Backbone:
């Protein structure tokens, strides 16, 4: 009897997850149709996807491995610089530049992660900040190469060429949006696939109880390192898209204040929910866009909202929906 | 050959000697109980055996292999499964997921991104088998954090069993349990010992459980073995009675 009930309960949970995914997919695919009606514009939607991807990348680590990084902007920013520098100095292939950004962010994360993963708790968070700031100061001071304080200019995303087919993502914002959406979808599908694997379950185990995980024979440090590296590859992907979106990369994309904003998106959206960080990023980016046109103190509004969410809905915005429907 | 052997095992924390020159040997298939008053060093002894921290002096051997320098997860690979005095589980996952993680890691799939059909089937079989053995099949879909205390303890034992351990170490499995739950867990341990032939080392305060289940008993007092023998020998030992009952009273 109770087997049957439990079975039904978990099937319901699975159905609900699919429903959420379907709704989000439909909303994202039809953005150019409905966005103008609510006063948005396509570049804003692309920005939401970019920040949504880096927030989901951080949540791979925070929500699904239980480890807090306060320096994820570093790998996001490295992705942006990797892409910008490639377009500026090396090649005019958008795909090659994207790949360079992903690799720069991801490999930096993998190398530094080997040093970071042995730390725990607040020490882990502090070390992530410290390494992040190193890249900030490099980009800030290396005027000749990175453009220093003014940022890296003088590059622009190029049309995609697939055989005889040319997709003009350079000038057509809608086509670029779909390009970003494609990269976003592939990244998110990969994350979901990893999380559903035996390896992904060891990460959940580490989140739930590190001591138990260790005494089940999971080499906890190594798995945290792998999770950190994977997370950084996706953060680098988001950063690469960011550079393509703005045709610009600047040191603030590496700064720890951006790392803090990414954490806010994740927590606000709900770190236990797979799509939570995307919702958090959407709220953050849209609010930033609207409120900053009215007042320079836009951050106060986001701060107030953040405090309200944390106090009253500790499971985040998507967590509210979940609870409601479960009740 | 003994399954587990400790030779002159010692652990000091600063000036405190928690475990002092402990030597013992557990035969394959044996159920050994370790008893002693609070602070006798029982859990510290477990932590040394399972690699929670390294000993100050002494050696640990499993089937004549020296494992003194191995890490905790390496010892698990050699066949050591343990439970803790305070239940250590994955509270926000279901009972089945808890056990599945243990089974997958034990089968060497901890880094796999994909299981073939036959591997997945093998894991599933192991999980269902373990659920049935521990009487948790009916609760497999529930979040383990929402279960009653006794069922959480059973789930923790199930996770250790899913590892297919050759040596099972249980730290006070009936701690904090009522009469009924204690009876159930004791029954489970008896089945594991008699029917499934597990080698078990058990720390336990409930003397009825100890004297009913154990093949041999080691009494620790102030970090050192006071006596070692069959339940009958231990019950008749005047030194044990003096020290142990003296402490208890």
Residues:
């Amino acid at each position: 009897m109770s087997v049957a009930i439990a079975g039904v309960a978990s099937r319901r949970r699975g159905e609900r997850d699919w429903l959420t995914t379907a709704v989000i997919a439909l909303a994202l695919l039809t953005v150019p149709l409905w966005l103008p009606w609510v006063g948005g514009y396509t570049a804003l939607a692309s920005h939401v996807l970019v920040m949504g991807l880096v927030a989901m990348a951080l949540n791979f680590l925070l929500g699904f491995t239980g480890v807090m990084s306060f320096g994820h902007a570093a790998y996001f920013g490295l992705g942006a610089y990797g892409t910008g520098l490639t377009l500026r100095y090396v090649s005019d292939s958008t795909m090659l530049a994207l790949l360079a950004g992903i690799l720069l962010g991801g490999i930096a994360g993998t190398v530094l992660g080997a040093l970071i993963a042995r730390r725990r708790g607040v020490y882990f968070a502090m070390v992530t900040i410290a390494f992040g700031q190193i890249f900030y100061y490099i980009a800030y001071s290396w005027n000749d190469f990175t453009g220093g304080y003014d940022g890296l200019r003088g590059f622009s995303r190029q049309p995609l060429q697939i055989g005889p087919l040319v997709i003009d993502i350079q000038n057509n914002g809608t086509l670029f949006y779909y390009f970003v959406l494609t990269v976003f979808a592939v990244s998110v599908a990969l994350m979901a696939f990893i999380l559903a694997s035996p390896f992904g379950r060891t990460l959940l185990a580490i989140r739930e109880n590190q001591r138990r995980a260790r005494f089940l024979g999971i080499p906890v440090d190594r798995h945290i390192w792998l999770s950190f590296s994977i997370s950084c590859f996706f953060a680098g992907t988001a950063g690469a898209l960011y550079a393509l979106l703005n045709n610009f990369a600047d040191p603030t994309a590496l700064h720890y204040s951006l790392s803090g904003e990414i954490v806010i998106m994740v927590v606000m959206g709900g770190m236990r929910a797979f799509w939570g960080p995307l919702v958090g990023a959407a709220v953050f980016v849209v609010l930033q866009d609207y409120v900053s046109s009215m007042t320079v103190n836009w951050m106060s509004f986001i701060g107030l909202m953040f405090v309200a969410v944390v106090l009253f809905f500790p499971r985040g915005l998507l967590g509210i929906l979940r609870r409601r429907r479960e009740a | 050959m003994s399954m587990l052997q400790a030779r002159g095992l010692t652990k000091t924390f600063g000036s405190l000697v928690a475990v002092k020159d402990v030597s013992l040997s557990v035969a394959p298939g044996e159920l050994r109980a370790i008893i002693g008053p609070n602070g006798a060093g029982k859990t510290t002894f477990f932590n040394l055996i399972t690699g929670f921290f390294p000993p100050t002096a002494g050696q640990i051997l499993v089937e004549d292999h020296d494992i003194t320098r191995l890490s905790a997860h390496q010892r698990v690979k050699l066949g050591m499964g343990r439970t803790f005095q305070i239940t250590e589980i994955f509270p926000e996952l279901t009972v089945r997921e808890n056990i599945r993680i243990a089974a997958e890691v034990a089968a060497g799939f901890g880094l796999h991104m994909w299981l073939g059909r036959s591997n997945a089937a093998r894991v599933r079989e192991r999980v269902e088998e373990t659920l049935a053995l521990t009487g948790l099949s009916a609760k497999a879909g529930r979040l383990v954090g929402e279960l009653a205390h006794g069922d959480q303890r059973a789930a923790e034992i199930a996770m250790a069993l899913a590892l297919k351990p050759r040596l099972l170490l249980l730290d006070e499995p009936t701690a904090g349990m009522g009469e009924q739950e204690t009876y159930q867990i004791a029954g489970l341990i008896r089945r594991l010992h008699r029917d499934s032939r597990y080698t078990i080392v058990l720390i336990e305060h409930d003397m009825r459980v100890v004297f009913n289940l154990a093949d041999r008993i080691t009494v620790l007092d102030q970090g050192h073995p006071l006596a070692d023998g069959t339940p009958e020998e231990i019950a008749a030992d005047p030194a044990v009675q003096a020290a142990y009952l003296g402490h208890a009273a």
Summary: The beta strands of chain B are 4-13, 16-26, 31-35, 57-62, 65-66, 80-82, 167-171, 199-203, 216-221, 224-229.
